[in-house]
Write a structure and sequence with these properties.
It is flat and about 80 Å long. The protein has three domains: 109 residues, no CATH class; 150 residues, no CATH class; 185 residues, no CATH class. The strands form three sheets. It has a six-stranded mixed β-sheet. Helices cover 38% and strands 14% of the residues. By secondary structure, the protein is of the alpha+beta class. Strand 12 and strand 13 form a beta hairpin.
Length: 505
């Protein structure tokens, strides 16, 4: 008996089934059992399967196995085995192309086996960005030429390396993103052939160390959010040119930005910020013209009706987020800020994050606005503003809400809600009756999934809205425009030092 050797990926499994005479079966089997799996790339087949009368064993991860054991087999006119193997880790099916008319028909016998070796990826940001750099290198320098994200899985020189980077199966959503990113890279960024894609060490380390030592910037992303650097040419020579530019006591970060802009234009050094995309990705260059707008004069019109908060109970609590829509007509864009807990799964509280998306770019996030800087700018514009991104200052449950002396029921019922629901600067909402909103807040606090975070995040967002509502129309437009620029790391009057970079999102 041949030893089982598992190496066949989905496209190879399909070919093997077809080779063994199941031409009428394979398309049905493949579409239903593989493409409909939660993780259609988290499976491998036995490379030594050659006898069509014997079971074709396919290993799947736990999530896929759960789907297999609960799915209906009705499309196949076949049958499912009654046993599931040792420990319930196997499930065998006999599949026919159509209704069996004679006893001579040979079914395709598939045995799915749950395997811990096909673990779900736990890749973090670093691994995801390493995956992008690898995909870019393959697309540009090796002429990989994929027609779809599925072709990445079928590429013997690409997918196995991604698995190593991710330390597990690569989620379909990231494969879709990688394909979309690579299309934009080749069609819009257009780096020269044989460019290097650096994410760790190398130029990334050089520029990070330089700005820390020379300008005291300890967090590189607060200056330039590039996740990878595309380097074309002699890296040592490029680094020496940059060192010469900033050498001397009076050199500034703006001079560094100027030389990086020139290098970007000459395609020598191109810093690229990467956001996870959907099937379509977009590209934009920021801080490339050296123009630094003053948001007192250049800003977007954002009336209070573009601020949204909803209070209807869904299940046993309401949604934690509040939103701001920004119609940036001068840039032909519409931004939507979602303001919610930075860690929605946290227990006992989480500070807020302010994260915008752009209309037309699906789920792509444009970058977080540093909330501490947002609060500082708000304070600079309105000295009386008291918003601080500190969840400990807000009640964690209904009891605390009822008794909290500063940010509790009295504050929201008598001050915040009247201003936002019935005042001259009313927000968009679904409930305007203050007593009903207070009742829903208490009910939401008692929701099973609240965890001391959900409703508290809503109160923080409402308090932020209230502080903004005290601004004049001109002040509010200036402030929200500042938020948009901060989130994108786009240079403006109050933060003129953001570096040049391209963004794929």
């Amino acid at each position: 008996m041949a030893k089982e050797w598992f190496s066949l990926r989905p496209n190879q499994i399909k070919k093997r089934v077809k080779q063994k005479g199941f031409k009428d079966i394979e398309s049905i089997y493949f579409e239903y059992f593989i493409r409909n799996m939660p993780e259609p790339v988290a499976l491998i087949g036995d490379d030594n399967w050659t006898d069509p009368k014997k079971n074709f064993v396919i290993k799947v991860n736990a999530e896929n196995f759960q789907w297999i054991t609960t799915s209906r087999l009705s499309p196949f006119y076949g049958k499912e085995s009654k046993t599931t193997g040792p420990g319930g880790k196997e499930r065998t099916y006999e599949i026919y192309a159509g209704k069996v008319q004679s006893g001579d028909a040979v079914p395709l016998k598939i045995r799915f086996r749950k395997s811990g070796k096909l673990t779900k990826s736990v890749a973090g940001t670093a691994e995801q960005e390493q995956g992008s750099a690898f995909i870019f290198d393959r697309a540009l320098n090796d002429n990989a030429g994929w027609d779809s994200w599925q072709k990445i899985v079928e590429d013997d020189k690409t997918y196995p390396e991604l698995v190593k980077i991710f330390k597990g199966s690569v989620p379909e959503s990231w494969l879709i993103s990688y394909f979309a990113q690579s299309e934009v890279l080749l069609n819009e960024v257009k780096p020269p052939k044989m460019s290097k894609f650096n994410r760790d060490g190398g130029f990334m380390k050089f520029i990070t160390d330089l700005i820390k030592k020379k300008f005291g910037i300890s967090q590189k992303d607060t200056w330039n959010p590039a996740d990878i650097w595309i380097i074309n040419g002699n890296q040592n020579s490029i680094e020496q040119t940059i060192k010469n530019t900033v050498e001397g006591k009076n050199q500034t970060i703006r001079e560094l930005n100027a030389v990086l802009r020139k290098m970007f234009e000459d395609e020598e050094v191109m810093g690229i910020s990467l956001k996870k995309t959907g099937p379509i990705a977009y590209y934009e260059k920021l801080n490339m013209d050296g123009i630094i707008p003053d948001t007192k004069d250049y800003n977007f019109n954002v009336p209070m009706k573009d601020f949204e908060s909803y209070f209807t109970i869904d299940g046993d609590m309401f949604t934690q987020d509040v939103k701001i829509s920004v119609d940036a007509k001068s840039e032909n864009k519409t931004f939507t800020f979602q303001i919610k807990a930075n860690d929605s799964g946290a227990t006992n509280g989480s500070n807020l994050k302010f994260e915008p998306t752009a209309k037309g770019s699906g789920l792509a996030r444009l970058g977080k606005a540093p909330v501490e800087e947002v609060a500082e700018i708000l304070k600079d514009i309105k000295k009386s503003a008291t918003f601080v991104n500190k969840y400990q200052d807000y009640p964690k449950d209904e009891t605390a809400f009822s008794t909290h002396t500063k940010k509790g029921e009295t504050y929201f019922k008598d001050t915040v809600l009247p201003a936002l629901l019935n005042g001259k600067n009313k927000i968009t909402t679904d409930i305007t009756n203050i007593d009903q909103v207070i009742k829903n807040i208490k009910q939401s606090f008692n929701g099973k999934k609240d965890r001391g975070t959900n409703t508290r995040a809503k109160l923080m967002g409402l308090d932020f809205f209230y502080q903004v509502s005290k601004l004049t129309d001109d002040e509010r437009n200036e402030f929200i425009t500042d938020m948009v620029f901060l989130a994108q790391k786009k240079a403006f009057g109050k933060r003129p030092d953001f570096g040049p970079f391209g963004k794929i999102y």
